[in-house]
Design goal:
The chain is mainly alpha-helical. The protein is built from ten helices and four strands; from the N terminus they run ββααβααααβαααα. Helix content is about 65%, strand content about 5%.
Length: about 270
């Protein structure tokens, strides 16, 4: 049964599938099966998960383990490196596109800490809390475009704090959505999810100087971001916003730290 609380949605959790862990969490293979089902037909239900303390901000407590998040991150790294990355590189070479960031000038604080939080708040927080989209999305645009500066940092803190406060109020006040509104959102949720994922991928075209790249080939440049956005969206819906932010952080941290290490200790390889 679907219930809503002051701009939030919560789906009933299914019973653990065969192969799940002793604590009730599905196994990694179960996760993969659910992800592919979800991409075909996104739904708002949660997955069985480890116990999460009930109360203020529970959506920010990852409903999974670091080990499981790392497994997903490694799978994404491998698939992007071996399959989608070469496709994107081929298209970039054909059109003369190149990445705006030089290997020795990567803003690692933004890539590892700022971007995961801001982008998850902008593109995926509202998926389970659509009633908050009207203020979360506009509030996150400036932090996304301007980066961490004196007046955007408080905006992000305000957005997270307000979300937690609204969740607390929701637990006390009870549902505030009409059933008609909820049914419509559930009906159109697959479209909302995929539009959010495509928008997230398209945003990363701004990381490239496109030169003569044909318009119809541009989506290939951001195939890795599109796939990553699908997984992060699935993680946000099934495991909470805390899980998707943490996974995004881990996903960005690996390549950034690797490049920074190469720049310092093996500059020939980095170039």
């Amino acid at each position: 049964m679907l219930t809503g609380r002051y701009g939030g949605l919560a789906g009933g959790a299914p019973r653990p599938e065969a192969g799940g862990n002793k604590d009730g969490m599905p196994g990694l293979l179960d996760d993969l099966k659910d992800f592919f089902r979800f991409v075909r037909r996104p739904t708002l239900r949660r997955l069985p998960s480890r116990a999460v303390p009930s109360g203020t901000g529970e959506d920010w407590v990852p409903r999974t383990t670091l080990r499981r998040l790392l497994a997903w991150v490694v799978m994404l790294w491998a698939f992007n490196l071996l399959v989608l990355g070469p496709l994107a590189l081929k298209v970039a070479t054909m059109g003369g596109a190149h990445h705006r960031l030089e290997s020795g000038n990567i803003p690692w604080v933004i890539a590892i800490f700022w971007a995961p939080l801001v982008e998850e708040m902008l593109f995926r927080y509202f998926l389970r809390r659509p009633g908050q989209a009207w203020w979360v999305i506009p509030l996150m645009l400036a932090p996304l475009l301007k980066g961490p500066i004196a007046w955007t940092v408080p905006l992000v803190v305000l957005a997270v704090g307000a979300g937690v406060w609204i969740q607390q109020r929701a637990r006390a006040a009870g549902p505030r959505w009409s059933w008609g509104w909820r049914r419509r959102y559930v009906r159109f949720f697959p479209l909302v999810f995929h539009v959010a994922s495509l928008t997230f991928a398209a945003l990363h075209l701004g990381n490239f100087t496109l030169n003569h790249t044909l318009i119809w080939l541009m989506p290939v440049l951001v195939l890795p971001q599109w796939l990553t956005g699908l997984v992060l969206g699935w993680m946000r819906v099934r495991r909470g916003i805390g899980a998707s932010v943490l996974m995004h952080l881990m996903f960005n941290a690996g390549p950034v730290l690797l490049v920074l290490a190469l720049v310092k200790w093996a500059p020939g390889l980095a170039s």
